Here is the input.
Amino acid sequence: MHIYDRHGPGDDVDMARPPLIDREAVLDVALAVADEYGLEAVTMRAVADRLQVTQMALYRHVANKADLLDGLVERLLAELPAPDVDLPWVVQLRTMADGVRRTARRHAGVFPLLLQLPTNTRSALGVRDRVRVALSEAGVPDQRVASAERLVSTAVLGFAASEALGRFRGLSRAEVDRDFTLLQQMLLAGLQDLRHDPVRT
Here is the structure.
């Protein structure tokens, strides 16, 4: 249940006051606007209008447009699976990669934010760290875990964004599925090479 803000004294308010809002409600609406009309449609005014509040009411819950977009990134990342750390590292990485692809298809308008914004939110850092732990378990040398994570994440995010935004529109679903499987196999082969390639200083 969402929190309800109150209008100030002297406002003409009906018995049924419009619901106002906690941060989750703001992000719910922002994500709905983006899913329906695209990321460019996500403005403070659009979110406020849909919630039937003033723009000023939003600033109790999001500091500015940048904070709103960070919140959308958090919302997308919250949808990603968090595989059991006791599973084999390759299963963990495949599960996360498949989850990225599903999220991109659900939220094509918002998904490119994951490629545009730095990974400085709590959820983003959590996902990054889960990938790094799996890479360490795969035997990637400690000095190369960070760069391997960046490359693996960028490849998976880039594929998912390309699919969601229609780059593969001329291909069948089966062909895209095969391409994604091939991408994962190529990434796993690269990780195997890292396990045996000496670290150069």
Observations:
- Residues 173-196 form the longest helix (24 residues).
- Residues 76-196 form a domain with the Tetracycline Repressor; domain 2 fold (CATH 1.10.357.10).
